[in-house]
Amino acid sequence: MHDVFVSYASQDQGAGSAAYQFLKNKGLQSWMAPADLPPALADAMKDPEKDPAELYAVFLRDSFPECRVMVCVLSRAAAQSPRVRQEIERATAKKVPLVPFRVEEGPLGDLENELRPFPGVEAWAGEVEDHLPRLEALVRQLLPAPTINLSIDGQSVQVPPGTTIYDAARKLGIDIPILCHREHMNPVAVCRVCSVEVRWGPKPTDRRDRVLAPACYRPVENGMFVSTHHTSCDVRKAAAMVTELLMSDHPTPCARHAEHHDCELELMAVKFEVAGGRLHGRTLERGRDQSSDVIAVDHAACILCDRCVRGCNDIRNNQVIGRMGKGYQARIAFDLNNTMGDSSCVSCGECMVSCPTGALTHREEVQSHAWDPRGPRPEPISADDLVNHPFFKNGSHKFLSWHAKSVVRRHYKKGDVICHQGEFGSTAFYIEQGRVDIFLESRPQPPRAAPARASPAGCAA
């Protein structure tokens, strides 16, 4: 199929040829009438005993040039050309996008009205050549995005260029195990659990790549036949071997799996039926870091997948976590090998959410006692209540449970002071019922000179 079909009347051959040649030189597969007519039809149209218009009408009806976009050179000659009108009608019937390329000023009759809704180029205001880049831009906007055709586990799929094998498999609903990647991260292909086999034909004897390819990193190519662990014994053995190597150096169960049973590595070991004890891990004690008030670090559970590094640096742009050391001494570090509590970590939790194992976990539920000395006595709100609250309805239940008692409900009587000027940065309020009056002083005042008083109501703080 051609990218572009350039249509013009014989009197507009100069403008039509210029547009055709320009688009062709830009790498677009172009077709031009009448220059690109089939030889048999071109010879038949020269026969004085045959009607050229009738022959061309039959050609359009039976074998209209397969194209993705049609460029119509518009002039008074085109408006009077039955052939051009036939081409426009046929393109409209086939739902081919049209780009009017107007090369002459003045009324074009019904043809102008037919093509008025389509965005085009008015080259009559200057030299035709000056407007060809704009014509190319319009054509490229209308061209459908190219697609790559490949097969994964016997299922065919079409995806845009640049798509990875992993994302193409997800489109088909094929699960590929992975530890170092998530869909919102840039792939780095460090765990190699997602390795797949790439062949260049449907038969097992067809040529295949010398080594397995990481699905999260390898872009798709036309003609690929990909086999995952679902259909290839070699791929399954490779994924199981990598999992066993990682498990040999991983505490079982780690803190995450012991509490929530969702360590991705340990679940993968169960999936691949990996039994421990065959391989021996490191004897070097890597230690723990309990210096942070929020996040506990267990270096022994770290598999160096770099998801925490990308979460901290690429997603949150905090630039705190990186790698240090080489070989078996490699591990994650904070700033210049500080403890996490002494680093510039802001405790956003992105590294903890990104970590697939128990290397980075929440230390404990946050028990905020800041409200204890306040009166009236605050009423703690459980995570179950918060998740149903209008303000927190889309929040994570686990995240809310981590911050138990840091959100409380307080009830005030009329005239009670909720907060004083200067304290507004220490907390936030959601008024559930009633109203409050706010008093602000424009000139400097003592810290408690301008209270906010509540009407009979309840509010969550």
In short:
The chain is α+β, with helices and mostly antiparallel strands and 461 residues long.
**Count of runs of 4 or more consecutive helical residues:** 15
Whole-number average pLDDT? Answer: 82
CATH class of the largest domain: Alpha Beta
Return residue spans where pLDDT drops below 50 for at least 5 consecutive residues.
Answer: 455-461
Helix percentage: 25-40%
Q: Which CATH-level-2 architecture of the largest domain?
A: 3-Layer(aba) Sandwich
CATH superfamily of the largest domain: Toll/interleukin-1 receptor homology (TIR) domain
- In total, the number of domains comes to 4
Q: How much β-strand is present in the residues? A: 15-25%
Distance between the termini: 65 Å
Q: What best-fitting shape do the alpha-carbon axes yield?
A: flat
Biggest sheet features: 5 strands, parallel
CATH topology of the largest domain: Rossmann fold
Number of strands: 22
Quickly give the structural class: alpha+beta
Would you kindly provide a written description of the structure presented here, covering whatever features stand out?
This protein has 461 residues and is α+β, with helices and mostly antiparallel strands. 28% of the residues lie in helices and 19% in strands. It contains 15 helices and 22 strands. Strands 2-1-3-4-5 form a five-stranded parallel beta sheet, sandwiched between helices. It has a five-stranded mixed beta sheet with strand order 7-6-10-8-9, with helices on both faces. A four-stranded antiparallel beta sheet has the order 16-17-22-19, with no helix packed on it. Helix 1 crosses helix 7 (128-142) and helix 3 (52-63) runs parallel beside helix 5. The chain is flat and about 100 Å long.
